[in-house]
Specification:
heterodimer; A: about 325 residues; alpha/beta; seven-stranded mixed beta sheet; B: about 400 residues; alpha+beta; four-stranded antiparallel beta sheet
């Protein structure tokens, strides 16, 4: 088995897709000659040329819109947006066109576009490049929202997204690119749309996705020292949401901590919290806990950035509270 | 803080257990509301409050033997304190300024009394577990599943509906033993002619809906109650070596329960009730005795007891007085008998009514007068019926 970084896994996924399907091409700011702002597409332009690896002008609305048009025209574009913050410039194309055209055309037109974007904090990129707005996209019917957190998912989820006849948003957390893991062979019956159990436990369920998954796993390890058995769920896909995996786990453990780098108010953790209140209330033995970002623009200073976003210690503390009791 | 004490449901009762609080801390409760279920040897009794108040504190743990007279529940007297009553999880969001302050101070101490997690509430409901008295160790002091496991509620909590038949048998044994040891009973009996009453009932019942018809035992109850009023030496309590009259007639009815127990709840002011009222009260009290839900006052207040064995097929019953009462009236089977009336043998409806009375208080002659008063009352059913 080979060790691979998350960045390499995404690159290999793009490479494989381009090789296997003549309709696939990559497009975005600095994806070609510069190799991508996170170096994901480094080297691809020399392998595939400018036809398949397209540098675009600094206009998210323009090139995402072009991607929507290409998808409607029969291509399978992979559009890279530098960060989720910038994707707001393309929100009109994503929400009003990509997500709605199948509905508006009475099923005649699909938009099989894949939009990849970096998300999250941790690299001191300050308040305009560090936010987590996955929940905004997970709110929109007509989109699918994948959040690969492991090298294995980074390697295989792209093809699932390309196979989908409708638009898929792929979020890549910036702190994952350098992460190295053993690449697992693609599992039989692989699907991007199910949550997975990262580790089993009996006392508390930790629900996370993307870059925060590994903080949850580390928290579970620290909790095990205190004899608290934590189950960790990797959501993998925010829309459609695999609620059954969450419900099954919470009905077993009776306690839950939701980890989400979004601001707490209106976060995706809030949505899960509401689902649990609707479907699992009578299984809950403690109030649902959300570990989210503080309600501030993500700061530049490293210690403030850390303080504003979910950390392992916060997760451990929340889990300890619901398992051992104490003041909320 | 006012307190409610462990009540006595009989002279022989020395201890009782609170098995369930029917209120939460902070609840405003109305006069007459049931606040606790008390388990005695006689079964589960609802304990009432006697004025409007606010529940302040539970002073004893559940399921422990508590001496009669010991304070078990702390109360605040009136409604003005309502505004600062602790909000429990059942209440609506805080509104008044006082309530907000209270809430804030609770946040400061971070321990909210009386809360339980949803999982605990569901589990408690399914398993009939009382949560009061369990110390919560969850978030903000909530009772959580682990607390239930630690407290082993399945051992502590009695089955709500089914009391212990063995325990009740023991209680009956204690009462009758005490009665027969302490009370010098004397016994009288009289065949009472019910023909007039029966004829009157046939007539009045013909005009009534089936569910409103009066049973023959109702005139008997009415006559006994009115005779007790007229002969007050049979209506009261013998305590501390002296007899005390009871001002009202609260007629205890010996009721056999299906699980072989016996209870004698009171019909209050039975001498003042019409046949219809008596009939309704009779049905109600029998039903609640069998299903549970008798009130404390009904269990304590009987001033004399009526035991009707007749429908079980015995001609005569001599009862055992229920201390500290001083008389028990037995009613046998209602029979058709050949009687001599004005020199002729005619069929009459007859019932044997007996009196077992406390010789320390009354003598046989008084007892005979009492029995004959019952006969006289039954001879004039229209008057006895209370204007019906």
């Amino acid at each position: 088995m080979t060790k691979m970084s998350y960045r390499e896994a995404v690159r290999e996924a793009i490479r494989e897709a381009i090789q296997n399907d003549p309709r696939v091409f990559l497009m975005g700011e600095d994806v070609g000659h510069y190799g991508g702002c996170y170096a994901v597409s480094k080297g691809l332009i020399s392998d595939f040329g400018e036809e398949r690896i397209k540098d675009t002008p600094l206009s998210e609305s323009g090139f995402v819109g072009a991607g929507v048009g290409a998808a409607m025209g029969g291509m399978r574009p992979v559009v890279e947006v530098m960060t989720v913050n910038f994707s707001l410039l393309a929100l009109d194309q994503i929400l009003n066109n990509a997500a709605t055209l199948r509905h508006m055309s009475g099923g005649q037109l699909g938009v099989p576009i894949v939009i990849r974007m970096a998300t999250g904090s941790g690299k001191q990129l300050a308040a305009q490049h560090s936010h987590s707005l996955e929940n905004w996209y997970a709110h929109i019917p007509g989109l699918k929202v994948f959040t690969p957190a492991t090298v294995t998912d980074a390697r295989y989820m792209l093809q699932e997204a390309l196979n989908d006849p409708d638009p898929v948003i792929l979020f890549e957390h910036v702190m994952l690119y350098n992460r190295e893991e053993e690449l697992q062979p693609k599992p039989e019956g692989y699907s991007a749309e199910h949550a997975s159990l990262m580790c089993e436990g009996s006392d508390v369920t930790l629900v996370a996705y993307g870059g925060n998954l590994h903080k949850a796993v580390q928290a579970a390890e620290e909790l095990s020292v205190e004899k608290i058995s934590a189950e960790v769920i990797d959501l993998r896909c925010l829309r459609p949401l695999d609620t059954q995996t969450i419900f099954t786990s919470v009905r077993k453990t009776h306690r839950v901590v939701l980890i989400d780098e979004a601001w707490k108010t209106g976060s995706f953790a809030s949505e899960i919290s509401a689902q649990l209140a609707e479907h699992c209330l009578w299984s809950l033995d403690a109030p649902v806990q959300r570990v989210c970002s503080k309600e501030v623009p993500i700061p530049y200073a490293a210690h403030l950035e850390q303080a504003a976003t979910p950390q392992v210690a916060d997760i451990v503390q929340a889990a300890r509270l619901v398992v051992k009791g104490g003041a909320s | 803080m006012k307190t409610l004490t462990m009540p006595s449901f009989g002279a022989d009762m020395e201890t009782g257990k609170v098995v369930e609080w029917c209120v939460h801390k902070g609840d405003a409760v109305k006069k007459g509301a049931t606040v606790a279920l008390i388990e005695t040897a006689k079964g589960l009794i609802d304990m009432e409050v006697f004025e409007d108040c606010i529940v302040e504190d539970f002073l004893v743990p559940l399921d422990e033997e508590i001496d009669v007279g010991r304070p078990i529940l702390g109360l605040q007297g009136n409604a003005e304190t309502e505004a600062i009553a602790l909000n429990n999880i059942e209440t609506t969001p805080v509104e008044s300024e006082q309530k907000v302050q209270q809430t804030e101070s609770m946040v400061a101490v971070k321990r909210i009394e009386g809360i339980a997690s949803p999982a605990v509430r569901l589990f408690a409901q399914k398993n009939q577990i009382a949560l009061d008295g369990i110390t919560g160790t969850g978030v903000d002091g909530a009772i959580c599943l682990a607390d239930l496991q630690r407290e082993k509620p399945e051992q502590k909590v009695p089955a709500k509906a089914g009391f212990d038949a063995d325990m009740m048998r023991k209680a009956i044994a204690a009462v009758v033993t005490k009665s027969k040891r302490d009370i010098p009973h004397y016994y009288l009996q009289l065949d009472v002619d019910l023909t007039e009453a029966e004829n009157w009932l046939i007539e009045t019942n013909a005009a009534r809906e089936v569910e409103n018809r009066i049973m023959i035992n109702v005139p008997i109850m009415a006559a006994v109650a009115k005779a007790l009023h007229k002969n007050p030496d049979f209506n009261g309590f013998y305590q501390n070596d002296r007899f005390q009259h009871a001002p009202d007639v609260h007629l205890g009815l010996a009721i056999r329960l299906r699980n072989k127990g016996l209870m004698a709840p009171a019909i209050h002011n039975a001498d003042k009730l019409s046949f219809s009222e008596l009939m309704a009260k009779f049905k109600d009290v029998v039903e609640r005795a069998k299903l549970g839900g008798l009130k404390q006052s009904e269990m304590q207040d009987a001033t004399a007891t009526l035991s009707n064995i007749g429908d079980r097929g015995s001609d005569v019953i001599f009862g055992v007085i229920f201390p500290p009462q001083v008389a028990i009236i037995g009613v046998g089977k209602v029979n058709q008998k050949a009687c001599v009336v004005q020199g002729e043998i005619v069929p009459r409806t007859v019932v044997n009514i007996s009196l077992a009375a406390d010789h320390r208080v009354t003598d046989g002659q008084m007892g005979a007068r009492f029995l004959n008063d019952i006969q006289k009352l039954l001879n004039k059913p229209a008057k006895l019926a209370g204007g019906e």
